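Standup notes, structure subgroup. Blocker cleared on the 2-acetamido-2-deoxy-beta-D-glucopyranose input:
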Amino acid sequence: MERVGAHGGKRWLPRLLLLAALSWLLMVYLHAAVFHAPPVSTPPHTSHVAVASDCEDCRRFLLRQEEQLKKIASASASATASALPAAAAGEERQRPRGGGGGDACRGRYVYIHDLPPRFNADIIRNCRKTEDHWGDMCRFLRNDGLGRPLADRIDGVIKSEAGWYDTHQFALDAIFHNRMKQYECLTSDSAEASAVFVPFYAGFDFVRYHWGYDNATRDAASVDLTEWLMARPEWQRMGGRDHFLVAGRTGWDFRRSNNVDPDWGNDLLVMPAGRNMSVLVLESAMLHGSDYPVPYPTYFHPRSDADVLRWQDRVRGQRRTWLMAFVGAPRPDVPINIRVRDHVIAQCKASSACTMLGCARATGSTQCHTPGNIMRLFQKTIFCLQPPGDTCTRRSAFDSMVAGCIPVFFHTGSAYKQYRWHLPGDHHKYSVYIPDADVRQRNVSIEAVLRAIPPATVERMREEVIRLIPRVLYADPRSRLETLKDAVDIAVEGILGTVARIRNGEYVDSGGPVTEDPPNLFSSTESRFRPKQSVQAVDH
Ligand SMILES: *[C@@H]1O[C@H](CO)[C@@H](O)[C@H](O)[C@H]1NC(C)=O
Ligand SMILES: *[C@@H]1O[C@H](CO)[C@@H](O)[C@H](O)[C@H]1NC(C)=O
Ligand SMILES: *[C@@H]1O[C@H](CO)[C@@H](O)[C@H](O)[C@H]1NC(C)=O
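Run returned:
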């Protein structure tokens, strides 16, 4: 009987445990309710009348774009749902084995146009001839566009890892073309294809003729290309609206005629045939055009899933001794009232928790052009500061993510409004947003903002950044990741979705009727977006 008594006493144990569990859950819930809120996020400032900045202009374009997209999306939400490829972050790709007899490539076939070499191979064959403006571009074109392997002493921390190269930020034309050759659903029958890839090296074409050449010379290859394309049967199907190409620079470089600077760039994105194609760029101008942003190339180009997983483990295990870091040069030629970068640099210099690689724009400054230095720094840092430079976006944002360093943005145009295919819609999951005006006008302390984020939240954000690594990198074009999707896989999904919407008559943002005139955001008194000036710049 004693045993019953003892047993009776023990009956309380589960209840106690249950009670404890419930109160723990309550605490977790309260903690989450308090802290899970976005760490920093003040709504866009509308009260003050600010002088329009580069990126404020950018933001206005983007907001307008967003409104249009929302309208289109809500009008066709249900109809499109099935046509859109799954785009959830981090999921593995479906292998096209077609196990059940079905064709896993159905709706995903891509046909690559066999262009005459004057549109690609010949352009880069001349990389030495134009050395004044390309710099030593030839060395960046080796290894299918990846550049020199990083294996020397100076590259230290990444020496023992596979897949690291001294990749140029504007080498995407070649990398993407070579990578497309590995795309799993290629077809040689263009009639079967859902999209047509045009391997024209638009970014390299820009570089060879931009400086010191007249309009006609700058536009010559684009005109030639569009004439060649329009004469093909593939063009007739959809007026080229199922075609896509890569112009591995910002969209501002390919719209001279509807840009603010009538002397900048060529007109690829303005000519009728150019407008009908989807053009992948590093930063979209978002001028109701058909240029879609994809990540800048980073230094990491894994050959296999294992390379990625090993790297993810490595950055997850890094000891991070710096709270924040900045790599980049000041931009003295940007008007003072919009130069948030100055404030970021000043705050970083003044903080003992911040580390910096100063990159004077003067020639001879190499320390911030050394991938090893940059990656080493980012791996030791919790938050990487990403203020705009010449334009809103930066390669550095992607370098930092690859290093597992949480990016801190100061403009929505630096990532959130750009890389919608590649980055999660909920940007608080992987980044910190400190509005530019808070720093410039209200002297908000970046350090204080970052220190206020609870460690558990930081941990979650970093884990999300690490999870995103495969999506923002370009796999080695000479091999193929087994199951992970890289930036090319994600971009092709985006293109296929866009083409499907166009085909269903649901998407008229490009090529189709423009319903209203774009606002004149660039009056002569306003500052504006400046195209990226530097060819060499690995300047972040
Ligand atoms: C070059 O093109 C731009 C815009 O497309 C135009 O404003 C400019 O006048 C042209 N330059 C010459 C020399 O024709
Ligand atoms: C662009 O696409 C539209 C709609 O499909 C078509 O009417 C037009 O002819 C195309 N433009 C060119 C240059 O092919
Ligand atoms: C901004 O804040 C820092 C430290 O919080 C202070 O030292 C500095 O004087 C402030 N600058 C201005 C312009 O208010």
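Discussed briefly. The longest strand covers residues 322-328.
Next: hand off to the docking folks.
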